[in-house]
Design a protein that fits this description.
Structural class: alpha/beta
Strand content: 15-25%
Distance between the termini: 28 Å
Order of helices and strands: EHHHHHHEEEEEEHEHEHEEHEHEHEEHH
Helix content: 25-40%
CATH architecture of the largest domain: 3-Layer(aba) Sandwich
Bound molecules: S-adenosylmethionine
Radius of gyration: 22 Å
Strand order of the largest sheet: 10-9-8-11-12-14-13-15
Shape: globular
CATH class of the largest domain: Alpha Beta
């Protein structure tokens, strides 16, 4: 488990209302949403893939900030000199000189940001921002540094694992936003979602779904088990002037009817099947038994959360065994009737382990692949409806599967 020093963390300082307001004002004045069309570079995977999507988003000035492109540096040539510095400061988290920072936010604000741990002083005196900025359709999110431009570093407030947990030293969980957040937003917005009324987003992380869909509801509530995430999502709601969006730190699996009923419930939930020893480290990824343990537990609570007209949308990974058995759909068939729910399973694409260790772990549990699915759940009589991915997607998936199998096959690579 990673531990951190609470008083060194920039998110801790967001609890101070005055600083929070000042930080929001400064960030709003920079109009950082205009950087949203510039994609990060592709560091892993095939050089092609998302390019048509990224290009069409670039032309329409839509967000590609989580969608890596092999042509990232080419796109970034279109940045003006002023925007280039903003991109370096807030998206690449490159250290800049105190003078450059003063030019961006003003000398007094630089001092305040250092004091409140938003800027870290590096050994050579340069200053690095402790958060990244990501925008989706004009909503601006402050998040833990994304590190998707090739440099990986630990935040300076992470402490030795052997330290004792106390009020000052706590388990560290980073606040999450990723391509899967963007994909879920894009898929959900194509659905006939309820409007008005109440919306619950479980595990909002930095607030991506909560704020994106919260805009269309009278009231929106985010419930995250991580106190850092709950604080940050609340800050991001204020940053975007969404006073109808609130967040609390709570266990979404155990809220029952504590916060009332909701017309829309969503959760981009942790769905990775990984060894149990990772449970306490990756609370944003660890999905429990076969990656669906958490999902099935959550579905059992849905009847208590949904209003009569309510709809729940849950992102999950459905394990497919080597004999072709679809484990999630089998379990849903057993459960839905007794819960009084109907479910439509929409298959987006297949999902495969990204490293050999996980690949072998899945194989040792007889899993050949996962399907990335979105479950649309409402009151009903136990019906399960499946909508497969388009044929073109299935062809690409087949190729990807063969490529990954070749890459991770121990015999061919001799364990390299
Ligand atoms: C995959 S992240 C998704 C974050 C965000 N919704 C997004 O899509 O960008 C999963 C989130 O669920 C939260 N989480 C995990 N277990 C939880 C629980 N039992 N109750 C509430 N939140 C939980 C994690 O802290 C994390 O913020």
């Amino acid at each position: 488990m990673r531990l951190y020093q609470v008083n060194g963390d920039w998110i801790t300082f967001l609890q101070d209302r005055q600083f929070r307001n000042e930080l929001s004002d400064t960030l709003r004045s920079l109009d950082l949403a205009r950087l949203q069309k510039y994609p990060p570079p592709k560091i892993n995977g095939l050089p092609i893939g998302n390019e048509t999507r990224v290009f069409s988003r670039f032309i329409r000035r839509q967000s590609s900030q989580l969608d890596a492109s092999a042509l990232s540096s080419l796109y970034r040539r279109f940045l003006s000199a002023e925007d280039k510095v903003l991109y370096q400061a807030f998206r690449m988290n490159e250290p800049l000189s105190p003078v450059e920072w003063s030019n961006i936010i003003g000398h007094d604000t630089v001092e305040k940001w250092i004091e409140n741990r938003c800027l870290e002083t590096m050994a050579d005196g340069s200053l690095r921002c402790q958060f990244s900025i990501v925008s989706i359709d004009g909503i601006v999110f402050c998040v833990d540094p994304l590190k998707d431009h090739g440099k990986i570093w630990e935040p300076n407030f992470i402490v030795d694992q052997k330290s004792d947990i106390s009020e000052e030293i706590q388990p560290f969980f980073h606040t999450y936003i990723g391509l899967d957040s963007l994909r879920m937003i894009e898929l959900m917005k194509k659905e006939a979602l309820p409007n008005g009324g109440r919306y619950l987003d479980c595990g909002p992380g930095c607030g991506s779904l909560l704020l994106y869909f919260g805009r269309r509801f009278d009231e929106a509530l985010g419930v995250d088990i991580s106190a850092r995430a709950a604080t940050l999502a609340q800050f991001n709601a204020e940053l975007n002037g969404l006073s109808n969006c609130k967040t609390v730190c709570d266990d979404a699996l155990a809220i029952e009817d504590k916060y009332g009923k909701f017309d829309l419930v969503s959760w981009n939930l942790p769905f990775i099947f990984m060894p149990a020893e990772h449970e306490d480290v990756f609370i944003d990824g660890y999905g429990g038994e076969m990656g669906i343990g958490l999902c099935l537990k959550f579905i059992e609570t849905i009847p208590q959360l949904l209003s009569k007209r309510g709809l729940a949308c849950v992102a999950a990974l459905s394990p497919i065994l080597s004999n072709g058995e679809n484990v999630l759909e089998g379990r849903l068939r057993e459960k839905l009737g007794s819960l009084g729910l109907d479910c439509t399973v929409k298959v987006a694409q297949i999902s495969l382990a990204e490293n050999r260790e996980l690949w072998n772990f899945h194989r040792s549990h007889n899993i050949s692949r996962f399907e990335s699915v979105y479950l649309y759940i409402k009151a009903g009589t136990g019906r399960l409806n499946r909508i497969g991915s388009p044929v073109s997607r299935r062809v690409v998936d087949k190729l990807r599967e063969q490529m990954y199998a070749r890459r991770f096959s121990e015999n061919r690579n001799n364990g390299r």
